[in-house]
Structures are given as structure tokens and as C-alpha cells.
Amino acid sequence: MATTTIKFNGHETGSLPLKLMNFQPVLLAAGRGERLAPVSDKTPKCLIPIGNVPMLWYPLRSLDLAGFSDVLIVILKSYESKISSALDHMQKKVPWKTEGFHYKFHSIVENIGEEEGTATSLLNIASVRKNDLLVISCDLITDVPLKSLIEKHTLHRATLTCLMKKLSKPEGALPGVRSKAIAKENNVVGIDEKSDGLLFIYAAADHKDHINLTQTMLTRYPRMLLTSQLEDCHLYCISREALLSVPHATNCHSLRTELIPHLLTHQYTPGDFSIDEDKLSMDLVTKLSSWTDHTGDMHGPYHDTKTRCYVHVAESHNLCLRSNTVPDFYEANKQIGAYTQHFGLGSFHKIPEGLKRSQAGNDSMLGDRLNMGDKSSIKKSMIGSCCEIGDKVKINNCIIMDNVKIKDSCVLQTCIICENSIIDEKAELKECIIGAKQTVPTGKMTNEVLADDEDEFI
Amino acid sequence: MSAPVEGKKVAPKSAAGDVLVEKEPFLAVIIADSYNKSLQPCTLDRSREVILYCTSYPQLIRSHVEKSKWSTLMNIKVIVNEDARSVGDALRDLDDKQLISTDFVLLQGDLVANLDLKSCMEIHKTTRESDKDAILTRVMKDCPPGHRTRSPNTSSLYALNRSTNQILAHQIVLDSKKVKLPTELIREAKELELRYDLLDCHITLCAAMVPSLFTENFDYQTVDDLVHGVLGNQEILGNTMHVHVVEDGYAARVTDFFTYKAVSTDVLEKWAYPFSPDTEWSNENGISLVSFGNKYAVSSKLFSKKCNLGSNVVIGDNTAIKYGASISNSVIGNNCIIGANVSIQNCYVWDNTVIEDDCSLTNTIICEQVRLYKNTQLLATSKDTMAMQNIDFVLGKGVHLGPNVTLDQPVLLTAAAMKDDWGEPFSAYESKGESGRAFNFVQPTEESSDDEEDGDDTSAEEDDSEDDAVIPDTELFYNEVLDTLQRAEKENISADNIILDINSLKHAYNIQINEVNHMVIQAVLQRPLQDISDTATSSQLLTNLKPLLKLCIHVFKNYYRSDKSQHECLLAIKEFVCDQSHDLYTPIIGQVLMFFYQNDILDEDVIVKWYETSLQPGKFKTQVSKLVEWFNEAESDSESD
Question: What is the CATH number of the domain that holds B325?
């Protein structure tokens, strides 16, 4: 894919400083990535490399490109130094674009589980900051202009605005046990196409035989689109006031499974939260004007409710990758090559000196200090730094992380090899996932996962 | 509502008249009877042949068709079948007579529209070409909730394929009900559009095979039935149906007083152009625009110079208006006399009506030959949100009111008493002034309320036949229960003992359990009435009732355990208050039901179901509706938790 479509590099910086001031970006990076096991066994999820760059760098870069300068990163306390040094390392190679760009860590204590606590962290942040929050997940790689979301949110003085994308399934062969490539959860999303209003999300697990629609929904949005083809990208603008004053919000732990559904249903409940004076006066302006967002009845704009949720659906030419599962992670690595220009990684993936083109094609990304033997070839693959590759090795469509030793005459196809693993001579691996610090003996393996027992990970 | 207002007599016709002649014949079938409430003869062009199918008032329709100029433009066949009771019957009859061999348009007569039928037909044809299984296209008008031409009672919900507008599912949504949408539907379709903003124009473009479908399924009564049937058999028969949504143009149906008013207003305000009172399409009486502000009249020679005509007014032929009368937003028929200083607002006055001096009318429909004597006041004060919104008074043909009578509560009046099947008058005579002649109009009761529990009916009937020999003495039993309750109140007998008492009485008098259920609640309601004076108010009654209700909580819990028995209880309450006219209970019925609900005696669902299925509109229902609304609010509250 050509990189010429990226236009907003130039004008996004600086063109929106005023509106950006009103948002506090929060990067959620405290997840453990259970669905990425065994890749995430020894590495915190946010540091798992995509295109040889730690995952969380991409959303951080998106915020940087959009012109934000002050980012809060929610992480687990124990990984603070690891993450900090990884980001410092990246900064040396690819400096931030926005002047004065900096980030702070909002560390949370270990014993909180993965999804648990995201909402709690946000509430804590909202109570000390003055702005609406722009929440982004560390596993999202996107070139959707954040501007479009922010504008929609600001324009409607929305409670929640979220980014969604068309459901896509990774194509071609995938590493790992076949049954792991489970069908994605098909949430049913209700959208009012006229206003881009987000009406509800019924999680696949919640609805069994029927979906309940209330009279209020139908009367307010008599023409709604129901789709099972949209996927939440975990990028949200959330109104600070709503977060702080929605009743029960303090009892929410998880952002995705508790807080968001809560905000969505709050659209239909009478009784509003208090909102600040600026927004109140704006509401008055809307009320006095002849503008309305719907036709038919004689109710005021937004049906006189103050809780309103919107959705921005990524256009088909936009990049929108989430790597929260192994197939998605693999897919993200495959696609990221086409977008290095956008993220300013152009100089990052140079072919190391002394390697011939024939050995490693342009379609591959190679890390530093790669030691590669004779008559070996690498195609459509990502190789981490400090790897040793012996003679007559063939690597095809693979993700190979740092410090991996691949001995002579190995054939690897569609595999994920995690850091510090050793592949013995003449091993033939196809569609396998090898966890960290594993030693793979000589022989053939197809469609297998090799990792430590699950109990052992932190 | 059996005579149309000016401007509504004529249905779809658009400008270019003779374009379609060269095409293959497209047949139009107009069902002149809506099988609902109203009847309006309609005609239609753009089809070479028109079959006008009617059940009632054939002479009226025939004469209208002959008089109108359409009969010269096209071939109109009038078929009269007095046995047909529904659209289904009509189409079965047509199938039987082998009158339909091509695609045809099916219309029903209560539509006012200026849609371009030709383009609808073309869309139907293209759909049929691309989808061989398509059998019908329903023409819909977008009409969002809250729009005035939308009847507030029921609405349809359609699930459509976004690109083809194929109907995937159809549900009738009753007010205050949640809609359950099968997940399966979305899983299969992946993406679909839910439309709650569609008004069925009752224009259906059908393939020639549609009447035979009605013949095959003799239980189909309406096009809706057909749609449901076809959707149910989609996997087997593979027939598909589509919707065509008309975005411009005007279309609305008159189904009740609410929409009657809305459509009339639209016609007067020229939304439905060319159907406005002064255009040639409807102008058989020579009505013309007399001045700005949509004021129409045949001639103004009988109008006093001092009368005051507001905007949106139509005055019929030979109608006199005396000095000081002011009329706005109203339609007055032919040969009427409007007295001096009369004020008429938002009214529909039909032919040959006399309104004497100093009357004042608002939100009223007055049928033919009504006479209002001096100083009769029909004042709309209520903000009733029920179906009759905007129309508060309906005076049937020949009603007389006054003089010096004031009505301030919504009411429907007829000139003769309603009679039941045995010829016994059952509607109350309303004395409305010295010269008054008016009876309350009561919606005929459908015989459903008692026969509803069909599940257990068979066993109950068997029991009945066995016990035929012994005559159950219900009245004695009832009185004994009353005595028991009185004793219980005085001597503070516990609920368990009351139950024991009642059960032994049940055996003594050989009473069926459903009758016990029926009578226990009635006796409890009857009990406080014995103690209070005739002039007591409802609130006094409530204070007397409360201790007894508390005493009997466990009695109720004993008898009203199942949903079925709870429903019986509610039916008994309704019978007691409405049918035995213990009107004192009407204002407090909400509180009484609330008590039952809060003490877990009656279930919310049962109350709502009872409210929706067994209650006729009236004050009683209005009272109950508050409770039901409260349920709904509470429900949406709890959803958010």
C-alpha cells in the first residue's frame, strides 16, 4: 500500500491547539494481554513489538502527530522502568514531532487484574484534571485523524465519542493452533446514521435470543442501523463531568464492560448529571437556535437529553489495527510495513550493512546487530535486534523477536518466535508459536504452541 | 364519520394524465371499505381499469363514482359484496371471480395522498425484474414519531435490508411495550435498518399471484397478515417482499379522530396539494378561495359583514353565518346556520347543522343534523393525552344539546341509545339541557374479556357440566363473604381464618374457584361502600378501604397466586367499577392497584397486559394509564442500573 494518502501530517500539528487544550489524553497500557499468550508471557503487553517497535509507541505517536503534548500513560508499577527505558530508546531514534511533547506515568499497583481498574484509573485521573479525557488503548495502531473524533465530540458537547471500524478477519495462514482463530465477538451496534449517534452496544455474550429495544429508543431514533459488522477500537473521548457525576460510575471497574455500557444506557434515563457552566450556556444557545438534530416531533435538539454518545466509523482507506489477540497481532505486523512513513519510521528499518538484497527483501523489517549466515533468506518477516541466524536458513512470513538464535538449515514459515529462544539445526516449523526462552529441537513441527506452563507467568 | 369532508373525497391523481396508456395494463383494486371505522369512496387514475370493491353503502359509492368525472376517464367496475368482512375476504372473492391476471395496485379508501403512483409502479417492476421471488411492494411514507398524521396508538416496526429494502421482519408495536428482536435476524443479515418511521399508505403493489395466496390461507384478513405469513414461510416458499419509501409528496391515512383532524388540517393548509378545497380535483361544489389565510367558501352572500373568519376555514354552500360569529381552523358543511356571537375553533361541522346564538365550540366533530341550542358551551379544558387528543367532543348525527349547557369533559354523544344484542338499551341517557337529546356512546364490548384463558378453559367447562345438577348459589355466597369481612374488621380476625371461612363457604355453596377469585375482590371493594354515606367522596372511600386491604393482604395472596387468577382479579375489579358503575372507585383505582402491586399481590406484567387487552378508553383507563406509565418509567430507571 502506498503511503501517499497521508495528508494530515502537515496540518494537524498546530491547527487545532485550542480544541486540543480541552482534552487530556490518557494511554491505557496496564493490560496484561491474556489473549496474546504466550507472546505476552514474559513481556508486558504494551512492550510487545510490532514492526520492531513496542506496541504502545504507536498510539503515543498518534497523539504526538495530532499535536498533543502532555500524555498520561496508565501502566503497572512494576514495569515502569522497563517501559520508560523502551520509550527513551525510541525517542533517540525517532524524536517526537510536537514541541515539548512529554508523558507522565500514572502507575497502578500490581494486584489489579487486566480489565479491572481501567475505569477506576480514569475516574482518578478525571478528578485531578480539568479536561475531558481522550482515552486510547496501547494496542491500537491507527492513522485515523484524531481531529475528526475530537471535533464531533466538541461539536455535540458529547458524553462519549468512540471510534469503530469495520470488522475484518485476518486472511491467509496464521500461526498457532487453528482452533484459536475463533470468530470474533459479534457485538450488535445500533447507530443513528443521521447524526452518527451511538445508541447501544449489545455485547455478544449479553444477548442470547433477543435484543430488547425500548419505546424511547424507537421513538427517538425511528431509523436506526443495526449491525454486527463494527468493532470497537478502544479510542474514546469521554466527558469529564459525565465521568464524575454519573451515578454508580464510581462502582465501575472496567471501562469497556461497565463504564461504556453505563454511559450508553444513561442516554435513556431521565435525570442528568451536572455539567459545567460553559457547556450549560452552549446548551442554551442550542435551545434558542432553530437548529435541531432530528425531525418529526417538536422536542428540542438532542431530545432534551444531556447524555449523548457518538461514533466515528473509520473509513476504509484508514489504517485501524488492534493487536489484542494473536491473529490480530500477527496481522498488525504484516501490515505495519506499509505505514512506516506515516509514523516517521522511514529511517528506522534500514537494511543493515553487509546484507544482500537477495537475502532480505524490502518487505522485511530487520533489527540492529543482526548476525546472518550464508545462503539464508528472509522474506516478509520481522526480525528483532541481536538475532543470530545461521547458514541456509529460510524465514518466511515470520515474527522473530530479540535475541533469538536460529541455527543452520532451519525452515520457518508463518511462525512467531519470542525473545531469547533457540531453534536447533534443521528444525522445520510451520504455523507455530514459540514462547520466550524456549529451545526448539531438530525436527518438524506444524501448528503448535510451545511455551512454559501458564502458571509460571507473573 | 360516514361522510367525507371537502377535499378528502378524491384520492391519488397526479398531473400528467394520459402517459401510461401505451404500457401494459396495470390493474388497480380499491378496497373502498377500510374494514376499520370510516368509509370514504376514492377513485384513482393512471390505470386503465379500476375495480372498486365495496361492502357497505354501495349506493353511496356508486352515485359518487357516477357523479365524479373519473368515470369518463377510465373504466371503473364497481363490485359489491356485502359478505366481505376484510381485505382478505375481498381478495379471495376477486380470486374466485378470476378478475385479476396481472400485477395490480391495491388501495384502501382511507388514504389521502398526492403520491406519484407511476414511479411506485416502476420501482415495483424493477424490483420484480431483479428479484423473481418478489411478490409485493408496500408503499410507505416516512413519518417520524410525533408527527401529527401518525396515529398515536400503534406503529409498525420494519427491519429492512439496507440496499434492497427487502422486508426482513415486521412487528406491530403497541404503546409502552418493549420490542424483542431476534438475534438470529441480525446474525443472518449482518447489517439491517430498523424503521419505526414508516406510515403504511395502504398502497400495495402486488403480483398477480397475491389473491391466490389469500385463497390458500383463508385466515389472512389483512395485508399485514399476508406479510407475516410470507415472512414465516420465507424459507420454504422463498417469496420476498419489499418496501418503497416515498420521501416527498403527501400521504396520510384517516384511521381515528386524531388523524382525521391532522389530515383535515393538512388539506386546508395545502400540504396535500392538489387536494385542497379549491382545486379542480375536489371542487365539485364550487368552493373557492375567498381571501388570504386559506379561507374557502362557496359564496359569502349569507355571511354577516360582522362575522369574523380566521385562517384555515372552509364554509359550505348555502350556510349562513350571523353577526359576531368567529370561526377559525374549522370546516363547516352545507346548509348550516351559525348563530350570532358563536365562536368555533378547531371544529368539523357537517351538513344541515344549526348552532344557535352565543354557543362556543372547541375541538369538536359535529355530524349532520345536529342542533345546539342557545348558549351551549363545549370547552376543551383537559389535556388528555389519550387517543382522542385534539378532538374532545364528537356529536353523532341528530344530537341535540342545550340550551345553557356546558361540557368540559371529553365525551362522545349519539342521538339514540345504544342497544345490546337483546335490544336492551345500555348507554346512559345524558340529560344535556331542556331540549337535549343525547346518549353516551359506549364502544361495543368485544366478547373477549371473559373467554381469554383458553388454556384452562376446557377443564373448567367439564367441571361445569358435571355440576349442572346442583345450582351454585353465587349471590348467597357473595353476601356471606361480605359478612365474613365485616366480622373480620370488627373482631380483628386473622387472614388465615378469613381464608378458612371463605373456603368452607365455597364448599357449602358449591362455588367454582374462579368464581371465588372473582367475588372475593368484589366483596372487599363492596365492603367499605356499605359504611359510607351516599355523598362521600372518593378519598373518604379510600381511607375506609385501606385498613380492610391491609387486613386482607394474605387473603389476596392466597387466592391470586397464578397469573391467570391475578388477571381474573383485575377483570373483576374492572367489572365492579365500570360495569356495575361504582364510579366512586374510578379516581382512586390507581392507588388501589398500586397497593396491590406494592404488596406483591398483583404482578406488573399482568396489570400491563390487562390494561392493554381488556380496558376500553374512558376515565377508568386514564386512571390506570398513570400507573402503567409509572411502571414504564420505573422500568427505564432500573435499566440504567
Answer: 2.160.10.10
